[in-house]
Amino acid sequence: MTIVRADYVMRMNEGFEIVSDGAVAFEERIRAVGPVNAVRDEYPDAEFVDAGENSVLLPGLVNPHVHLEFSANTTKLAYGDFITWLKSVIRHRESLSGACKEICMKKVLDGMLRSGTTTIGTVSSYGLDMKPCVHSKMRVVYFNEVLGSNPAMVDALYTDFLGRLEESKSWASEGFVPAISVHSPYSTHPVLAKKALEIAREEGMVVSTHFMESQAEREWLDHGTGDFAAFFEEFMPGTRPVNDPLAFLKLFEGVPTLFTHAVHATDDELKLMQEIGAITHCPVSNRLLGNGRLPIEHVKRLTIGTDGLSSNISLSLWDEMRAALMMHVYGPLDLLARRLLVAATREGARALERNSGEIELFRDADLIAVTLPDGVERTEDLPLQLLLHAKEAKLVYVGGEAV
Ligand SMILES: [Zn+2]
Prior knowledge:
CATH superfamily of the largest domain: Metal-dependent hydrolases
CATH topology of the largest domain: TIM Barrel
Radius of gyration: 21 Å
Strand content: 15-25%
CATH class of the largest domain: Alpha Beta
CATH architecture of the largest domain: Alpha-Beta Barrel
Bound molecules: zinc ion
Number of strands: 16
């Protein structure tokens, strides 16, 4: 048994409870939480760790949407417009995915862990990131991606996807959870999507998909026009949209799904997505690719992700939350800070069906301690100040083990 004390324990529970001079006792799971003296009285023999002055103990962060295979990108890809970016990804795909191999990806994963992220949902296009994810101390929900709109290619693409999925299943453990990603409605043939989703349904897997990221996607799927029409004319002449947006969403009914971006979704689509699962907001990616702002004031089940380094400069959720804080200018600032912290912990864990994300009895002891540069005058200022100043975690526990 370990007890960690901190100046503040931010539980991230329904009531957004913050315990001053608090402590958490845990083994693999959380066994007690409350004022430090009460917790020490309950477990007098536990190993005692003090997180120190100006410390905040909170659940480990959950980043449900990242792509590790493009981690080599820094300056190569073109930003500002979605289709321009997509073309640059196609031009550099081979060189970028080959440039960040296992040691490089391990470094990327370790960096995320140091920042305080204890669980990720990562979308894998080729399976190149499987080994580093299997061996990471972080918990990984590993989304094997299926993609391809050309009907003639469906069988070959499905076979390739099945191969990667089976391999990931052979590595399944507490910390490595095989899952499925259907790339998007503009890129994935419904036959392929249905077959993959059937597996998810049968095997109880979580699913991730991109939906209505750009205005170009909206126009293409609604009318077969716009920048995507020109794009497909160049790469696959004669292509027509393969999915109707609402019909595509209905394919996911009954499968816990994370819908990423949704910037250009209609109210009906937002409603349906949140009946099925949750929305993942990637503010930096949306800004860099010229896609606009997700109206989070219309989203209830909000999670926050970094997307990959192909459309970001950082995989730290602290950086991502700070970006979101600057992007969403409506409503009280302190409430937005709280909302983003909940999205990055409890809501992310819930969407990925993990037993973490809040400091409650019997939840997994995935915990981090962060040190603020100074004290706060009022406890209610803590969420915003934490979000503004946090960079690295001082302590990180995954399943009760210090990492
Ligand atoms: Zn993505």
